[in-house]
């Protein structure tokens, strides 16, 4: 038990799911974006509502790209699936929202948080203290999406079942059975949050403090 406590203490000191390398972060917490013409008026409004959740609840400011911006999040629907690069990669980077599959507030917020520099919650290095992965229910091609990351930053924020970046229990199941189970009653609704959680906001603000340059 003492050894387990020691391991848990070490894991908590290394709680991670955000990019460590500052080159992946957006200078001054300002994120230029463009919305392509793939979207209807209603879809575009939904994207703006998701952006406003960040602009009103965190230190980050998404803003329409200007002619002087070189690094831009291009929000479009030219590809299949809902996905984004993690953090700033330089130049124009895609954030894809397949229509109509990805047109839901929580999905858009999820992808925007990836663009800020955060990975999924369930791949944190300390996740085994909070969930059990059921590898037998995950297709071989998807198992890499459940591998723990070892080079990320957690900003001293504990594991968050309510994170907008947490998978739901049957996400990517190959047989209809859960891909993970929670080790705490707190995880009963993991993966079903519609908005940024309080811990999401805390992590974002620690990655992008108001003094960040």
TrEMBL record:
What is this protein's record name? Metalloendopeptidase
Protease among keywords: yes
EC assignment: the record states 3.4.24.-
Keyword Protease annotated: yes
* InterPro entries, sorted: Astacin-like_dom, MetalloPept_cat_dom_sf, Peptidase_M12A, Peptidase_Metallo
Q: What residues make up the catalytic site?
A: 111
One GO biological-process annotation of the entry reads: proteolysis
Q: Taxonomic lineage per UniProt?
A: Eukaryota, Metazoa, Ecdysozoa, Arthropoda, Hexapoda
Cofactor: how bound = Binds 1 zinc ion per subunit.
| Names of the cofactor(s) | Zn(2+)
Q: Where is the Peptidase M12A domain?
A: 13-211
């Amino acid at each position: 038990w003492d050894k387990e406590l020691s391991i848990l203490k070490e894991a908590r000191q290394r709680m991670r799911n955000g990019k460590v390398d500052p080159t992946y972060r957006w200078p001054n917490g300002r994120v230029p974006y463009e919305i392509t013409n793939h979207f209807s008026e209603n879809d575009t409004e939904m994207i703006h509502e998701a952006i406003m959740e960040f602009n009103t609840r965190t230190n980050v400011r998404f803003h329409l790209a200007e002619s002087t911006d070189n690094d831009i999040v291009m929000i479009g629907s030219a590809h299949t699936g809902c996905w984004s690069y993690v953090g700033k990669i330089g130049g124009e980077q895609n954030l894809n929202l397949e229509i109509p599959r990805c047109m839901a507030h929580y999905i858009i917020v999820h992808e925007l948080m990836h663009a800020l520099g955060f990975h999924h919650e369930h791949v944190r290095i300390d996740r085994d203290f909070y969930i059990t992965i059921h590898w037998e229910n995950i297709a071989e091609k998807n198992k890499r999406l459940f591998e723990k990351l070892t080079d990320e930053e957690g900003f001293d924020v504990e594991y968050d079942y309510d994170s907008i970046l947490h998978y739901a229990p049957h996400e990517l199941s190959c047989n209809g059975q859960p891909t993970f189970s929670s080790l705490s009653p707190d995880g009963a609704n993991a993966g079903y949050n519609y908005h940024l959680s309080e811990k999401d906001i805390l992590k974002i603000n620690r990655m992008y403090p108001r003094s960040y340059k």
